[in-house]
């Protein structure tokens, strides 16, 4: 997969996009990453990408010309990218969107700054994505978050393929509680079943624990979770208690 970003701070991506799983995925050729500098598509001596809003008001907006020109060039090459704009007014990002994006060959993510974009740039968007109901100073962190969540879903990116399958949100549930050595620490113990070596019992315990944890911490997720009739009855009982 090819992931590209278009922003005025391309250097921000250097370390996060070269470290750990993303760095390894790039070395293995699973992920190709390019950070484009929006200022490369400006024509004035200050290489400006922002201007005052019509009608007055605070701050500066990202202007249309460099973004349109950059996309004219970048979108003209094959394979055509899915063009994503980051904005707090976009569709909230979640795990199912990460899975859907992981199926694309090429993503081009446009990152805003200042007070955001001139509204007309959204005519170029295939998708507008929000990270959540809060305001960041720029879209670069949003692009890193999306790239990180998508990259770990690409085949071969994680050492153990099962790790992405079992995780929180993958089946609409939070992940079950996990423990590692020592089995007892400062009086805190690990559930006996996990030390039993009985894999069927461990699987059963984990499933139940995931439903319990979801009912306790994120009951809103249960409606769309993949549950059997018996599990749903158990979840309803927990939710009502
Ligand atoms: N004035 C804009 C508003 O109220 O919607 C916020 C602009 S924000 C300071 C600058 C840029 O950061 C945005 O154009 C966007 O690219 C990015 N950004 C900020 N918050 C975001 C969020 N929750 N999700 C995705 N991108 C965000």
Structure description:
The mean pLDDT is 96. The protein has 241 residues and is an alpha/beta fold. Helices cover 31% and strands 17% of the residues. It has two domains: 150 residues, SPOUT methyltransferase, trefoil knot domain (Alpha/beta knot), CATH 3.40.1280.10; 73 residues, Orthogonal Bundle (Trp Operon Repressor, Chain A), CATH 1.10.1270.20. Strand 5, helix 3 and strand 6 form a beta-alpha-beta unit. It starts with a strand and ends with a helix. The protein has a five-stranded parallel β-sheet, sandwiched between helices. A two-stranded antiparallel ribbon has the order 3-4. Strands 8-9 form a two-stranded antiparallel sheet. S-adenosylmethionine binds next to strand 5.
């Amino acid at each position: 997969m090819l992931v590209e970003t278009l922003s005025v701070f391309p250097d921000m991506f250097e370390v996060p996009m070269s470290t750990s799983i993303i760095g390894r995925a790039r070395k293995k050729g699973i992920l190709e990453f390019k950070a484009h500098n929006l200022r490369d598509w400006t024509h004035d001596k200050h290489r400006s990408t922002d201007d005052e809003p019509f009608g007055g008001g605070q701050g500066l907006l990202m202007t249309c010309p460099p973004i349109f020109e950059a996309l004219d060039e970048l979108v003209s090459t094959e394979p055509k990218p899915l063009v994503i704009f980051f904005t707090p007014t976009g569709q909230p990002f979640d795990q199912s969107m990460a899975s859907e994006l992981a199926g694309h060959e090429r993503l081009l993510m446009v990152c805003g700054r200042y007070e955001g974009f001139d509204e007309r740039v959204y005519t170029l968007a295939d998708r507008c994505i929000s990270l959540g109901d809060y305001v960041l100073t720029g879209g670069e962190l949003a692009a890193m978050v999306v790239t990180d969540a998508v990259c770990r879903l690409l085949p071969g990116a994680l050492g153990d393929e099962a790790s992405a399958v079992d995780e929180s949100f993958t089946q609409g549930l939070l992940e079950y509680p996990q423990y590692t050595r020592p089995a007892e620490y400062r009086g805190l113990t690990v559930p006996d079943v996990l030390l039993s070596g009985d894999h069927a019992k461990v699987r059963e315990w984990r499933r139940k624990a995931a439903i319990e944890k979801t009912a306790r911490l994120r009951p809103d997720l249960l409606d769309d979770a993949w549950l059997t009739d018996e599990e749903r009855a158990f979840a309803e009982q927990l939710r009502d208690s």
